[in-house]
């Protein structure tokens, strides 16, 4: 059985206006509240446009280990039809992490509150994903 594909879905849009809106939400969100986009914090360190070196390293390790076959990252306005339909049909809220099994459908594995626990720590996030995959023999 092939390793699953990990989908990281951001609570932000890819457009310039989307980035500005996210930036505004990020700087005006109180510290004790759920972050504007916990997935963004994990992969980009918050307001940065580029992925952090720690995220690139953690993602590379997951791919090299074979724990996941691919890591796909999408903004809300970049979703394909299948992913968009799944998110809507399940009533899910951004940000989130999904898994797609070989030949199968999508499953939600982490929501925004669960992502916020990592406080931007990409290595801890990927370690949790790895443990979950190993503990359930390829399924989170």
Can you walk me through this structure?
The chain is α+β, with helices and mostly antiparallel strands and 140 residues long. It is built from six helices and four strands. Strand 3 and strand 4 (106-111) form a beta hairpin. The two termini are 15 Å apart.
Number of strands: 4
Structural class label: alpha+beta
Tally of alpha and pi helices: 6
Order of SSEs, N→C?
A: EHHHEHEEHH
Over all CA atoms, what is the radius of gyration?
A: 15 Å
Question: For this entry, what is the oligomeric state of its chains?
Answer: single chain
Shape: globular
Query: How far apart are the termini?
Result: 15 Å
Reported for the largest beta sheet, the result is: 4 strands, mixed
Helix residue percentage: 40-55%
**Order of strands, widest sheet:** 2-1-3-4
Mean pLDDT: 84
Strand content: 15-25%
Q: List low-pLDDT spans.
A: none
Short précis:
The protein is 44% helix and 15% strand. It has helices at residues 16-28, 38-44, 53-65, 81-90, 112-116, 122-135, and strands spanning 5-9, 70-74, 96-100, 106-111.
Helix and strand topology:
Elements: E1 5-9, H1 16-28, H2 38-44, H3 53-65, E2 70-74, H4 81-90, E3 96-100, E4 106-111, H5 112-116, H6 122-135
């Amino acid at each position: 059985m092939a390793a699953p594909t990990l989908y990281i879905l951001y609570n932000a849009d890819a457009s310039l206006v989307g980035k500005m809106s996210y930036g505004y939400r990020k700087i005006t969100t109180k510290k004790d509240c759920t972050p504007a986009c916990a997935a963004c914090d994990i992969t980009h360190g918050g307001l940065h446009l580029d992925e952090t070196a720690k995220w690139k390293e953690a993602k590379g390790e997951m791919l090299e280990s074979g724990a996941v076959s691919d890591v796909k990252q999408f903004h809300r306005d970049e979703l394909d039809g299948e992913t968009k339909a799944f998110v809507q049909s399940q009533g899910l809220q951004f940000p989130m992490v999904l898994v797609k099994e070989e030949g199968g459908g999508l499953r939600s594995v982490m929501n925004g509150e669960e992502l916020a626990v990592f406080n931007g720590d990409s290595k801890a996030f990927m370690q949790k994903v790895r443990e979950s995959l190993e503990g359930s023999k390829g399924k989170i």
